[in-house]
Amino acid sequence: MDFRFDIIQEYAPFFLQGLLLTIVVSIISIIVGSILGLVIGLGKMSKKRLIRLPFEWYVNFFRGTPLLVQMLLVHFGLMPLFFSQPSATVSLVVSLSLNSAAYVAEIFRAGIQSIDKGQMEAARSLGMTHAQAMRYIILPQALKRMIPPFANEFIVLIKDSSLGVVIAAPELMYWGKAAQGQYYRVWEPYLTVSFIYLILTLSLSKLLHYLERKYSNQ
Amino acid sequence: MIKVTNLKKSFGDLQVLKGIDAHIKEREVVVVIGPSGSGKSTFLRCLNLLEDFDEGEIIIDGFNLKDKNTDINKVREEVGMVFQRFNLFPHMTVLDNITLAPVKVRKWPLEKAKETAMELLKKVGLQDKANVYPDSLSGGQAQRVAIARALAMGPKVMLFDEPTSALDPEMVGEVLAVMKQLANEGMTMVVVTHEMGFAREVGDRVIFMDGGYIVEEGTPSDIFDNPKHERTKSFLSKVL
Lengths: 218, 240
Known about the structure:
Chain B: This is Polar amino acid transport system ATP-binding protein. Chain B: InterPro entries: AAA+_ATPase (IPR003593), ABC_ATPase_HisP-typ (IPR030679), ABC_transporter-like_ATP-bd (IPR003439), ABC_transporter-like_CS (IPR017871), MetN_ABC_transporter-like (IPR050086), P-loop_NTPase (IPR027417). The complex is a heterodimer of chains A (about 220) and B (about 240). By secondary structure, chain A is an all-alpha fold. Chain A has helices at about 5-45, 50-65, 65-80, 90-115, 115-125, 130-160, 170-185, 185-215. Chain A starts with a helix and ends with a helix. Chain B is α/β, with parallel strands linked by helices and about 240 residues long. Chain B has a single domain, classed as 3-Layer(aba) Sandwich (Rossmann fold), CATH 3.40.50. Chain B has nine helices and ten strands. Chain B has a six-stranded mixed sheet with strand order 6-7-8-3-9-10, with helices on both faces. A four-stranded antiparallel sheet of chain B has the order 2-1-4-5, with no helix packed on it. At the A-B interface, helix 5 and helix 6 of A face helix 2, strand 6, helix 3 and helix 5 of B.
């Protein structure tokens, strides 16, 4: 079997373009997802059942249905309500953000609830308000514990962004598929794309290990 | 200082406090003893509203805890608490543990808070530990820091919830010594403990609780040498 490096060479500029879009889409989505997730996580921890309920169902829906289905719903159902010609890239960002918000919400909730109850009690017994106790005592400890699952979620999100291919968002996988379609070759484009994803995710986990080491000795 | 009337509290179907009346005077050291599950810790935790209660009334330093106009945070500024499991803040140095509340709650300047903290650390014999993190402290040291942290707010009352129960036996003494010193200085204290020696030596009054009631109370010699109730006698015969 011959391996046609010329295909990779020809598509290199497109792969680079796709890679940049994948990175930008992933970063925007994890940021939006985190902000949304924070709100949803707080909502889910509310003592009032009626406030909790919609947030719980948000998380249930987005964690319990396939991202692929959500993406199709967003691109062909939701976005046309607002735009006459929906951009696939925008749809990709929206669906990834909504999806990761559900996971971040759970990471956030688990992080806060993993802190020993005694910490909140000690803070309150010293006269701190609930907000002060959260800010100075609970969150600093919880955030540290949230780093690993959060980085993990980011890695998953980067890989999930490849689903953008089904709505023709021109991210990395889209160009892999394009090369495959043009030359009817499987190994060259898909191995190259895999390799690029691998570099992305591996460097992220290296960064994660570095952060963990840095913050664990406190 | 503290007046408790007909205090009742349930967890779900289980009623743990079935009507407690107690009056604690200024500068008094009251020791609460009793078997586990008797409600003594819950009683103590009601005094600064870490546990909400269902019925009755608690008045501390003129504040009625159930009054809607009472700011519970203000009351807690005057009521220090020491926990069985220390509950030091692990992400902060010993010094920061002690200065945090005075700075954030009492709005003291950091310098003043640090000065007070160092004085308190000296008092509990740990001035050399100011800049270490809690996880490098022994249990006895951690509990002494926790006492200093509570004292830093300048409370009028100190509550101790089994402060030596999580300690190795050889460290109990150093914590009790600090508490004894505090009692001698005239601090009003409510102490839930299993340390009968401490109760006898330091307590002005001993309260024996069982099954959600105060069964018997009196001076240490009343309770330890002349218990009147069968339940007090049987409890003391097991622990003494």
